[in-house]
């Protein structure tokens, strides 16, 4: 089944895995919605990278934890590029490494509002919009970026983040069964220790090399390596794949 141009909305696409996915989608000639929360400069740089790679892109500001923002984001994407073929739910945050006993309610609320509520709002909106382009011969696709933390638990680091990603694994299973009859595929990618800004934002920049060296491949992964998995799941090449959790973890 050949590749074809697609209209793809990616949340949290101004940096890290989201940005790498946008860039790779651009290289396929796809049209990409670059969602960002606060850093307009980084989002505009991502747009330029997509267009330099051969695609088209638009930057869309949205706080995914706010329902009105999410609806407006999907509206903006459709206004610019037409019906959406695929959505990547990638936006997420992590807080400073610490055991659960030291976490405040404010921290927990912040993580769960963005990572769980935000993802569910985006998934709900995708479930409402993707049927416009989905057929048996041309399935639409929703890819959720979970994490190996969902099965490892991240003890003494961020069990709140791990729990939020566990919710993504469950969402993938349930929503794939809801949307399968509508020709919409739902899958998750679970990255392991990946070279992005998330480790520094958790207050542990050395974690990348420390944990990466424990994998069977003896190194951390790159955002581009995760992006390859995401783009494959978005594409018609994965036309019979749904309800799957694809680990990109170097074997850990």
TrEMBL record:
Top-level taxon: Eukaryota
Keyword Transmembrane helix found: no
Kindly give the PROSITE patterns that the UniProt entry links to this protein: ADH_SHORT (PS00061)
Under Gene Ontology molecular function, one entry of this record is: oxidoreductase activity
Task: Give the UniProt keywords, A-Z.
Answer: NADP, Oxidoreductase
Xref: Pfam families: adh_short_C2
| Family per record | Belongs to the short-chain dehydrogenases/reductases (SDR) family.
Protein name as catalogued: Uncharacterized protein
């Amino acid at each position: 089944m050949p590749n074809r141009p697609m209209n793809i909305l990616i949340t949290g696409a101004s940096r890290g895995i989201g940005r790498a996915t946008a860039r790779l989608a651009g290289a396929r000639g796809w049209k990409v919605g670059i969602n960002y929360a606060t850093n307009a400069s980084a989002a505009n740089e991502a747009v330029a990278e997509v267009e330099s790679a051969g695609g088209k892109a638009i930057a869309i500001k949205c706080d995914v934890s706010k329902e009105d923002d999410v609806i407006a984001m999907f509206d903006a994407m459709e206004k610019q590029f037409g019906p959406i073929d695929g959505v990547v739910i990638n936006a997420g945050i992590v807080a400073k490494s610490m055991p659960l006993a030291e976490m405040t309610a404010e921290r927990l609320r912040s993580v769960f509002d963005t990572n769980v509520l935000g993802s569910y709002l985006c998934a709900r909106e995708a479930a409402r919009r993707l049927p416009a382009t989905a057929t048996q011969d041309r399935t639409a696709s929703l890819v959720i970026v979970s994490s190996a933390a969902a099965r490892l638990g991240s003890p003494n680091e961020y069990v709140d983040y791990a729990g939020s990603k566990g919710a993504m694994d469950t969402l993938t299973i349930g929503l794939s069964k809801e949307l399968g009859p509508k020709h919409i595929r739902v899958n998750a990618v679970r990255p392991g220790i990946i070279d992005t800004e998330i480790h520094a934002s958790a207050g542990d920049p050395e974690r990348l090399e420390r944990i990466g060296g424990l994998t069977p491949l003896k190194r951390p992964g790159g955002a581009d390596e995760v992006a390859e998995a995401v783009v494959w799941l978005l594409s018609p090449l994965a036309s019979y794949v749904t309800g799957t959790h694809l680990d990109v973890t170097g074997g850990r």
